[in-house]
Each structure stands twice: as structure tokens, then as C-alpha cells.
Amino acid sequence: MAYLSSKKIFPGNWAEPLNGWYKNIDTTDNSTNDSSAGGPTAVLAVPGWKYFQQRGYAEVTGKVGAKWNASDVIVPSPYRNDDTRTDITGMVVGGSASNPAYVYRAAASVASGWDDGRVASGVYTDTGNVISFGRSNGGNPTNNTVVAEACAQANIASTVDGTTDGGSNAIFFAGGSSNVSTAPIYYASGTATGGALEDSTSHYQVAADTTWKVFTKDGANATSAVDGVYISDADADAGKKGYIVVEVCYLQQDDAPGYADIEQYLANRTVS
Questions:
Q1: Is the residue at 166 inside a domain?
Q2: What pLDDT is attached to residue 205?
Q3: Which of 126, 198, 232, 256 sits in a 20 to 30 Å window from 272, CA-based?
Q4: Would 107 be classed as within a structural domain?
Q5: For the whole model, what pTM was predicted?
Q6: Number of domains within the chain
Q7: Radius of gyration for the chain, computed over Cα atoms and rounded to the nearest angstrom
């Protein structure tokens, strides 16, 4: 189930990254968890528009024989001491035909750790592949060159030889490797008329709940997941893990104002 609504905050009321975690709550005792008003946190940075920032990670734990080429994103719960508020598996951008969301940024990086003995030195995949964070199309990655996909997809590339620790045909993605999507910005290109605003570099419209995932694929414009990502034998044997850390940012129109927005200003107000 995707989130049902969103929490709203206003500039000045928040001093940390926005929280993409949510919990759909059962308030009618029918076990459907369909009565929540507590979705991801959005900030009304511009009046009339809700801005969202979801962050999460895909975990890499296996050696080359246990590599994966597609993974759901874990959205971690901020309530680490409450076992009823668990991590969410699956990063969903919510939108509808009547109120679409518009993705303007995707970003991904390989976690570097803090030399605390928990995080692998990096991750590996086969030569020529990229680690891609983007929209899932029926479980498959999407072409980065299709309309607006470039603004909603991040592709980490590497040419670092990884054959010493990663095996034959391997490339290495060191901790700290990263990429961000194309910015949907109209800007001057150095000519008198500036650059044209093209469909390929506009916001990606989400008109139905859509999942973002991490893939390995054969280049940014590939539409199928291939090979896979893994960590070195030494890191796996030491109990370390690799992490692909991701972020998707989007905006959506706020709800129309209602009675609650004007009630306090009406004449003959009665307080029970």
C-alpha cells in the first residue's frame, strides 16, 4: 500500500531533511490500515505547492555469487526504539490523474562509511554497467533519454578496474561515487536566445503511485536489468555491507483551502 496522504510543515518549522517515512494507521479496527493522515512530510516552501524529499538505501551484502540487479529501496524509520514503526520496503512517489506529482531530482551514491567497520569499501559490477536509481516500469528500469526521465533518474558510472578484488570483468564503485539527475532548469546557453526548454529535460509527471528502485543496467538508456552488484569477498567475510543511498525529490499541488482555513475569521463564532 502506498501512503494515503501527507503531513505538511511550513518554512521555519523544520531543521533537518524531510522525512519520507510514513505509517498507514488502522483507526476503524478493520485491519486495512487505510485511515491515516500521516504520509511523508512535505514542506510548503512555495505557497500552494508541497515539496517532498524521500531518502533511503538498497543494501548490498553478497559476494559475486549472490549479486542482485534490481532492489527495492528501504525507507528507514526514524523511530529506531519503537518496533511497531518499522522500516518501509519500497520507495513510492504518490500522484494521481487529478493531482499529479512532478519529480525534479533523483540522486544516488555509494556509501563510504566512517571507518566504523560496518560499511564495505565499495561495490562491484561488470564492466560497462551503471548503477541506476529510477522509476520502475513493471519491475524494469527505464530509458534515461525518454521524455523527462533524465530528471527522475540517477546513473553512477565507473571505469575503475575491479578485477583484483571483484573477479573477472569487474569494475569498482568506491565509496563516495555518486550521480544526480539532470536539472529541469531553463538556462541561457551562451547564445542570444538561450537554450530551448525541451520535453526531455522537464519535470517527470507521476499520475499514479509509482515505485523508484535501484538497478544495474548496461548504460543509462538500457531498459532491462543485467548482471548485478556485489561486494568483495573480504568485506563480506568481515560482515560488512555496501549501501546504495538514494533520494527522490518532487512537488505536488496542495489541497484547496477549506472551512478550517476561514472559520476563525467568521463573525458570530461560537466556541463550545
A1: yes
A2: 95
A3: 256
A4: yes
A5: 0.87
A6: 1
A7: 21
pLDDT at residue 198, rounded to an integer: 61
| pLDDT value of position 34 | 54
Q: What is the pLDDT of residue 158?
A: 95
Residue 104: all three cell numbers together:
525534479
Identify the pLDDT of residue 14.
Answer: 66
Other CB atoms within a 10 A radius of the CB of residue 264 amount to: 8
Q: Which helix (H) or strand (E) holds 161?
A: strand 160-161
Is residue 227 domain-resident? yes
**Rounded distance, CA 201 to CA 186, Å?**
9
The secondary structure of residue 53, as a DSSP letter, is: E
Answer yes or no: is 29 within a domain: no
CA distance 171 to 125: 6
State the DSSP code for 254.
P
Which residues in the chain come in under a pLDDT of 70?
1, 3-5, 13-15, 24-38, 187-200, 271-272
* pLDDT at residue number 112: 93
Residue 61 three-state SS: coil
**Pairwise CA distance, residues 134 & 149, whole Å:** 8
Q: Structural domain of residue 214, as residue ranges?
A: 53-249
DSSP label at 69?
A: S
List the beta strands (DSSP E) in 182-257. 204-206, 210-217, 242-253
List the one residue out of 222, 38, 44 whose CA is nearest residue 130: 222
Retrieve residue 148's grid coordinates: 523527462
pLDDT in tens, 11-25: 776 667 788 887 766
